[in-house]
Sequence to fold (227 residues):
Amino acid sequence: MPAPNDGPPAPPNDEAPTTDALLHHNVTVAHNLTVANNVTVANNVTVVQVATTGIVVDAESCQVDTLAHCSAVMLTVAAGENWDDLVAMCVDNDWIGLEALSGVPGQVGAVPIRNLSAYGQQVSDTIARVRTWDRRDRTQRTFAMADCDFAPGDSRFNREPGRYLILEVAFQLRMGDLGEPLRSTELADYLGAEVNSRVPMVNVREAVLHLRENGRFPACSHRATAV
Fold:
């Protein structure tokens, strides 16, 4: 008697599947299970766990502004990665731009949906692109930052709920030990610094974690959790 089949078959194993082939299989399985069981996937978390985890760092990236070439890194981060672990890694490696978003629970895949923001930083300032699974068209789609239609507390992914499963997010971050200019009066006051001044990123992260631990959350209507 054949063994019971609990789901769609795995990809053919006559040769090792590529990452994209395996990813396609996994999100297809997840899509079929979601439809079959009429499950609503809140903020992509359930299906993201079926996809993949991992972080790829490209240190050869370079961001160009109107003044000079600046060293930068490009981080390609799978949606299932823990958000605060990513922020801690960035601070430890002197990668600027996420330090004020410390202490937010949840996963990377949820962060672009409502354009996570706190203490004067918003994640869209560092996002280069977002790779998704389009549930409607059953295909992968990658959106450059400009095509994500970011707004305070919003994005195209939030305005089309249920359509896009976020697979990975690419961040472009400048390198240095000083954080972005402080835009939050509360955070600047806590650090004993002036608004728009720059202080070591490690100090910013420690201050934000302390403020959050003491229940002092940023006063903005669109502060999001990454869950």
